[in-house]
Amino acid sequence: MVQANEHLQAKSALPCALSVTYRMTSPSTVLTEAGTLAVFGFGAGAASSEDARWLRVPLECFDAPAPLEAWQVDALVTHGRHDKLRWSAGGGWLFAAIEWDERKTGNIEDAARLAYDSLRRFMRTRDERHVLRIWNYIADINLGEGDAERYKQFCNGRASGLGDFFAEGFPAATAIGHHHHEPVLQIYLLACVDEGVAIENPRQTSAWRYPREYGRTSPGFARGMLMPARDALAISGTAAVVGHASAHEGDVEAQLNETLLNLEALLATADMPAGFDTHSPLKGYVRHATDAARVRELLQRRLPGVPVLLMHGDVCRRELLVELDGWRFR
Ligand code: 3EB
Questions:
Q1: Which residues span the domain enclosing 177?
Q2: pLDDT score, position 13
Q3: Most Cβ neighbours (<10 Å): which of 9, 225, 275, 283?
Q4: What are the C-alpha distances in Å from 256 to residues 45, 214, 281, 305?
Q5: Whole-angstrom distance, CA of residue 224 vs CA of residue 77
Q6: How far is the CA of 266 from the centre of ligand 1 (A)?
Q7: Cis preceding-peptide flag for 15 (omega within 30 of 0)
Q8: What is the DSSP letter of 106?
């Protein structure tokens, strides 16, 4: 009896805390530390490693040398590969990633459908079945007009690959265009044994309710996701979208200010402390490299001391010049 009870207590203590940090060190250093769930390098200059927990994100960082991003848990971590997928798990958390070369399928819609289908089928084999956060990095995201724009085709393929997998609610997400010479769709996610709390932004129309003009398939994502222990908020890609409309076309500074208003509203809705601090790692995606210095200067003024990784990436609407995502830890 006592043993059974202890077992239940141990179970309900899951998941353990998750930390997300930027580190100026080598992948091998982080990968040998206890509890490392995933390590991300950014851009062509990033090191390579055969470890399943290592992922090179195809976005160039405006800071050289670029730091690494480390996800760490206070638990034993196991990792492996499953077809095209790589994964790691420990302490109630799961990292999974897939890279799909579009040249194998011919178009982005099929690539997204097949990649999401693989992820969905893999997730069925796991106890960490609640997907809390997803990142999507897509080549030439704004190529094509109207419904033929690649981002919109990606949305179609994502929805058909997912089927009813997110019927209970969408995770927080990011979808950003990359400029790598290989047309690779990269998707990675964080999942957990326990469910989180999806947060919407009162200043923004929920993405799944976007009107038809933004595409045949509304993007399926929540504006933010509170972690199961309510100790951290994962913040989706956030840009100068007010209601469902893009604001401040052509003005990167006004777009950034609007984005910061969106983030403040999201934190308030999630009942998280206002503002960001030194433990709130953010990413900034900037469309035009010529805007990077200006964006960095504005962020240093508005968010002093906050770790921000500034990267060259295209927001999924071509009029949007900058987007932020990241974490707020309580
Ligand atoms: C927006 O607010 C910007 O398709 O998964 C942000 C985050 C955006 C996620 C996605 C898209 C996605 O609509 C675009």
A1: 15-329
A2: 58
A3: 225
A4: 28, 21, 17, 17
A5: 26
A6: 15
A7: yes
A8: S
Q: What is the pTM of this model?
A: 0.95
What average pLDDT does the segment 142-168 reach? 96
Task: Determine if ligand 1 sits within 6 Å of the CB of residue 153.
Answer: no
* Alpha carbon distance 140, 33 (integer Å): 36
| Position 1 in a domain | no
Tokens linked to 151: 């981002």
Other C-beta atoms closer than 10 Å to the C-beta of 145 total 8
Q: How many domains does the chain have?
A: 1
Nearest protein Cα to ligand 1, atom 6 = 237
Burial of 169 (0-12, 13-18, 19+ CB in 10 A): middle
247 located within any domain: yes
Query: Under a CB-based contact definition with an 8 Å cutoff, are residues 203 and 106 in contact?
Result: no
Report the C-alpha gap between 55 and 58 in whole angstroms: 9
- State the average pLDDT for the chain: 94
Type and span of the H or E element at 2: helix 2-12
**Domain containing residue 163: CATH number:** 3.30.1330.40
Q: What are the φ and ψ backbone dihedral angles of 289, each rounded to 5 degrees?
A: -55, -30
Q: Which two tokens stand for residue 8?
A: 């239940």
How far apart are alpha carbons 166 and 254 in whole angstroms? 34
pLDDT per position as a tens digit, 7-61 = 444 445 578 999 999 999 999 999 999 999 999 999 998 988 999 999 999 999 9
In contact, 128 and 80? CB cutoff 8 Å: no
Residue 10 lies in a domain: no
291 in a domain, yes or no? yes
